[in-house]
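Action item from last week, closing it out:
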Amino acid sequence: MTGHVRRRGARSWELKFDVGVDATGHRKTRYASFRGTKREAEIELARLVAAAAAGTLAEPSKMTVGAYLKAWLDGPHGLAGKTAERYQQLIEAQIIPHLGAVAIQKLKPAHIADWHGKLIAGGGKDGRPLSSRTVGHAHRVLHRALARAAETELVSRNVANIIKPPKVEEAEVESLKADGIDAVLKALNDHPLEPIGVLALSSGARRGEILALAWKNVDLSAATIKIERSLEQTKAGLRFKAPKTKHGRRTVSLPPVALDALRAHRRRQLEVRVALGQGKFEPDALVFCTIDGGPLAPNNLSRDWARFVKARKLPSISFHGLRHSHVSALIAGGVDVLTVSRRIGHASAVVTMKVYAHLFSGTDKTAANAIEAALRTGKER
């Protein structure tokens, strides 16, 4: 297959190339426009010719990026409800306003680089700058959508794979130190949020996992809880869902303080049920629920927790921050990364290290001191 480049302007080129023959034996020709240097145009032509020869060149389409993204979201994307909602927000607010009108087959790496710059400069609400982290989230959404377009041969390559998102400086996760945990526990004493707050600090479980916990998965004798699902809140309402990975299903051991809080909570629940004439717990009764036994909305729990922290003048910490505080305490206590990872349901220890790397730096210093003591002892013998 052959092709050639013809100048159309100062930095504009027409690419003409063969794409085989039709049923009558006549050559089929395709055209493409390109902006850049002549050398870059020649490289693009070579790529198109190679794709045509390999049979991977996408058929001509006028579909725009915006139209494709909407169709992709409406199709079988395999995204969880909350994730799909977040993707839709990013597509509507960060991608379509800047790239939506571009024909998907004419989307170039230069478009992606330019898009990143615009988002960082003023892609937020009312033209405010966006953080590199948010730009990265939007980039990953586009990348995932274009990967599907490449799989179905709507496009010949994923241009979001060529230009990388802006580098994000890793921020330390919010967590309480030992004195902060002590202050929270004292403030929780006899408060309605005490059992759920103590369990979050004691188990490191996620908000949705705690709210999906049923009494049948609590073994007070063995001092364990079994996490098998999570509660998710979307615009469509509340729903229980399975963990993302096999590591999400796990059994977590509890300390005595958590067991005491759960026993007291169970007694109070039973007293309320008897008073309301509801009798004993049903097999799937939730540990934390509404007065009629229904699930508590995760967003409401976060709101109530924020009000509690503010009212008691406690160190600023979100409900999710209790999970980070749990991990921080484990690492400070010398618990190894694999055990921490399994306890909190991470997909692997690599994920745990990435999120909590700054905390493990302290344990490395402890390790250095330990080996120094051992070497000194050996030398003195």
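Closing note: Residues 58 and 155 are 5 Å apart (CA to CA).
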